Amino acid sequence: MKKLYTKALIAVTAISAILYSCGKDDAEEYIPLPESPVVLDPEAEPHPKLSDYHFFEGELKNLEPAYGVLPYDLNSSLFTDYALKKRFIWMPAGQTAHYTTDGQVPDFPVGTVLIKNFYYENTLPNNTTIIIETRLLIKKAAGWHMANYVWNDAQTEAELNTTGGTKEITWMHNGVEDSVDYKIPTHNQCMQCHAQNDIEMPIGPKPQNINKMYAYADGSMNQLARWKQFGYLDTYPQQILSTVNWEDTAQPLELRVRSYLDVNCAHCHTQGADCGYTPMDLAFANSITPENLGICREPVDFVSGREEYIVSGQETANSLMYWRMNNTIQAEMMPPLGRVTIHTEGVQLIEEWINAMESPCP
């Protein structure tokens, strides 16, 4: 699925000058610039079916992007019960996003669509790939609008859904059979994570998160450079304070932790967000300080009766962050949405980080 914009991209890069041949057949030799087949009126209601947008070529379930629909990825991905993601972005012709800061999404033009597909591979009994939902964020004149599409069992179409639901999935996870009752969010639940100062907005495509190489069909390239090359981004600084892949053990432990907390927790635990009142700020640029990571900070919103601090060095049993992540009780777990299972590897990361601290809190 590493295809980029279809074969038309190669045509674009090959015809930076207008191509004509000499002679009477000049008009027949003209190669026009490709056009995106995407159908979108950002001010209209969302289409009832995913296929109505023409984001993808061929069989819909293959998620092969049409021209102008660019795939992208994040340094670290949000955990949603081990579901995998395929992300794409599309903008209207001639429109460009503007860089703001490393830790904020670019100023996207009206008509931009962010496309995120949630799926599982190796599902049983037939070892197939099942796409559960495709979430769209559409930039309207008044701001971002969310539209969620739930796929049918035949994997031939996804229909607009606002009420959420549950999908039972059984799959082979790291060679072991696993299962989950995957929760499809309602519109209001999406708002709980995708709102800052009561304004809907994207979370993932910040320069700090997409400043990485991507294996496109025509070779690997930095994603920010590709967006600029294609006209989707005006400019960006040469040096960007970037997150890392939290699974990359070659990276410093605290940098991995801060990257994990940024993508999984900061959309709530930062200024202006749903849990911005808590005594920490987990946005990557702000979590450089121990206080914003919750180290030796007393919780103000939840006390289980055992933990004195949000994070206490060398004491997972005395660290509320660890306890809430290692929990599946709805009223007690964190994050409270987007999962019904424990992210075992994420909990292990936090445990390793806490145990590596020099001393407990006083």
From TrEMBL:
InterPro entries: Multihaem_cyt_sf, SO_2930-like_C. It comes from the Bacteria. PROSITE patterns: PROKAR_LIPOPROTEIN. NCBIfam families: chp_HNE_0200. This is Uncharacterized protein.
